[in-house]
Amino acid sequence: MWILGSIAMGKVAAKIKVMPDSPDIDLDELQETLEDSLPEGAKINGFERDDVAFGLVALLPTVIVPDDAGGTEAVEEAFAGVQTVESVTVENVGRI
User: Fold this and answer.
1) What pLDDT score was predicted for residue 3?
2) Domains in the chain, CATH or no CATH each
3) What integer pLDDT is reported at residue 69 of this predicted model?
4) How many other C-beta atoms lie within 10 A of the C-beta of residue 42?
5) Range 69-78 contact pairs with CB under 8 angstroms and sequence separation of 24 or more
6) How far apart are the first and last CA of the chain?
7) pLDDT digits (tens, 9 = 90+) for 13-48
């Protein structure tokens, strides 16, 4: 029965687009701040960067959260609460 219980509780991977509020933001520093803001049980499994326009670059962290943690809502709220973040959008979600 323990095996069935551990299979039922999976993890979800979400790619989240984080837009800084200025092209002058230090993206390495923003990455560290996002990692520090993660709720318990969530972890970042890498970052991508996306050139948006006029020097503005979005960060695209892939976040792993437990399936029972209510999805990505807590992570989205944590990222949105970072002072230099303009917006947070979930780009893609899937089970792993």
Assistant:
1) 43
2) 10-95 (3.30.70.60)
3) 56
4) 20
5) 69/39, 69/41, 69/42, 71/12, 71/14, 72/12, 72/14, 72/16, 74/39, 74/42, 75/14, 75/16, 75/38, 75/39, 75/42, 76/16, 78/37, 78/38, 78/39
6) 21
7) 999 999 999 999 999 999 999 999 999 999 999 999
| Structure-token match 């230090």, residue found | 26
Place of tokens 């499994």: 45
Residue identified by tokens 């993206």 is 27
Nearest Cα residue to 25 out of 46, 52, 62, 65: 52
Q: Where are the alpha helices (DSSP H) in the chain?
A: 2-8, 27-37, 73-80
